[in-house]
């Protein structure tokens, strides 16, 4: 049970520690009866904040830092699809997602804090959910994109079950420290600072 550590961490975000964890609003135990046989079942549900509330998201990316392919090729990716790691670069013609230098630094600090915390409570298998919001630009007819990001699915702890599974599926189940390092390294490749600040206006940089 890591609830005490979790609430201590989130109480310091984002004022003290930059963070993009999608916050937990509540956890519920739900009991219900199956009509056919009369047996009672119990399910545990966790409710998190809506990362994309009031946002008109055109495309979503679910990024884990591993090779995961949702579609066979770039032409098969539709606007409504959630893009996984492999398809991210196919969708963007092989280029990483561009951020301003300030935004890249803020995102990096937040992800470093979040992944270090998640490792400390032995959690792995989380994702960075990215929503792409298209907005009209103030300059001409050009359009700009805003990225809305948050770390989700951070409830799976590395227990004896995962340890046993890691012996069978070495490439898919890894320990929290290894997962953190792979996640960080991948996201450094997925996001890049824009070079606009170095543009001299004469076509050279």
Automatic annotation (TrEMBL):
Region forming the signal peptide: none
Record-level GO BP terms: phosphatidylinositol metabolic process
This protein's UniProt keywords: ATP-binding, Kinase, Nucleotide-binding, Transferase
Domain of life: Eukaryota
Pfam families: PIP5K
Database matches in PANTHER family: 1-PHOSPHATIDYLINOSITOL 3-PHOSPHATE 5-KINASE-RELATED (PTHR45748)
Name listed for the protein in its UniProt record: PIPK domain-containing protein
Organism whose genome encodes this protein: Haptolina ericina
